[in-house]
Design goal:
- This protein has 69 residues and is α+β, with helices and mostly antiparallel strands.
- It is 41% helix and 16% strand.
- A hairpin with a 2-residue loop joins strand 2 and strand 3.
Length: 69
Amino acid sequence: MNTLISPPPTPEPPLLVDAREAARLLCICPRKLWQLSSDGKIPSVKIGRSVRYSRAALMDYIRRAEGGK
């Protein structure tokens, strides 16, 4: 009997990323990310003592930087 084995489901990316990952995704240094965040250009979420960035906020920042495309 032939049984098809389906590949495991692809895990969804996390909704929130830490500063290091956010900076990596934007191809900027963490210091620049901190500056953009403190200027209010990229919102962040504080959970306890950890600061996280939503992928949606990062994508929104990219769209605004491109001129609203």
